[in-house]
Amino acid sequence: MEQLPMSLKIEYGLFKLDFTDYHAVLGIPVDADVKAVRQRYLQIARRLHPDSCKASTEAEKNKANLLLTRLVNPAYEQLSRGHRDYAASLSHLSKRLGAQGDKISLASATAKQLLQAGANLDNLYRTSVDHLASEQYQALDQALAKIAEISELNLVYLMCKSGKGETVKTPVSTPVKTQATGVTQQNSQTTTGATSQGGSVGPKGVSRV
After folding, report:
1. For the chain, which residues make up each domain, given as ranges?
2. How many other CB atoms sit within 10 Å of the CB of residue 71?
3. What is d(CA 113, CA 119) in angstroms, rounded to the nearest whole number?
4. How deeply is 183 buried, as exposed, middle or buried, from its count of CB atoms within 10 A (0-12, 13-18, 19+)?
5. From residue 13, how far is each of 41, 144, 183 by CA, in Å?
C-alpha cells in the first residue's frame, strides 16, 4: 500500500507498532469473517462515497473521499480477500504482544478497561468495538481518533489472548479449482490472525464491490 499522507497518520494501537490495522479502519473485530467485512464496508462506503456523502461543505466531502480512497478501500481490499500475508503478520504480532505486554502503554480509557476485563474479555471487546464503530464516521474530524481507539482495543485483545495461550482466528481465502469447470475460486478458511503492509488500493466506490 502506498504511503499515507501525514493527515491520515495514526500513532496509537497496532499502528504504533508499524502495523496497518485494517480491522480498526473498518471498525470490526480482528476475527470478523468475510461477510461481516463486506457488510461493514458497504455501510461506510455509503456514508463516504461522493455520490451519497451528506457532508455540507466541500472540505468535508474531500475529507470523506480521502478517508474512503486511502484507508477504507485498501482495508476492504485486504480483508475481503483474506490475504494470508496479513493473517500471518497479525499472528506474529499477537505473539509479540503476549511476550511484551507489560511494556505496552495505552491511551484510551476503553482499552485500559478491556485490559482488566478478565473472563469478560470477549464480550466487552466486541461490545466496545461495536459501540465505537457506530460513531466512527459520523463526524469526519473524529474518524481517525475512533480508528485509533478501536486499534487499541485490538491490541489489548490480541495481547490478552496471546497471554492466555489462545489464538485469534482470522479468515483467509485459498484458491479452489472446481471439478466441473476447472475455474479457480476463492474458498474462505480461517487461520491464526495477523497483517501485511502491502496491498493495492481497493475499489473506488460501492458500485465496484
Report:
1. 21-199
2. 25
3. 13
4. exposed
5. 21, 12, 40
Question: What letter would DSSP give residue 10?
Answer: -
H or E element at residue 170: strand 169-177
Q: What is the pLDDT along the chain (209 residues), one digit of tens a residue?
A: 456 667 789 999 999 998 999 999 999 999 999 999 999 999 999 999 988 888 778 888 999 999 999 999 999 999 988 768 888 888 889 888 877 766 788 999 999 999 999 999 999 999 999 999 999 999 999 999 999 999 999 999 999 998 877 777 776 554 433 343 343 344 444 444 433 333 333 333 333 33
CA distances from 101 to 47, 74, 90, 164, 172 (A): 36, 29, 15, 12, 27
* Assigned C-alpha cell, 86: 496479513
Is 0.70 surpassed by the pTM of this model?
Answer: yes
Name the CA dihedral angle for 164, 165, 169, 175, rounded to a multiple of 10 degrees. 170
Q: What is the DSSP string of 108-166?
A: -HHHHHHHT-GGGHHHHHHHHHHHHHHHTTTSGGGHHHHHHHHHHHHHHHHHHHHHTT-
Residue/partner pairs of 113-117 with CB below 8 Å, 24 or more apart: 114/153, 114/156, 114/157, 114/160, 115/156, 115/160, 117/160
The region, left, alpha or beta by phi > 0 then psi within -120 to 50, assigned to residue 87 is alpha
The span from the CA of 169 to the CA of 191, in Å, is 5
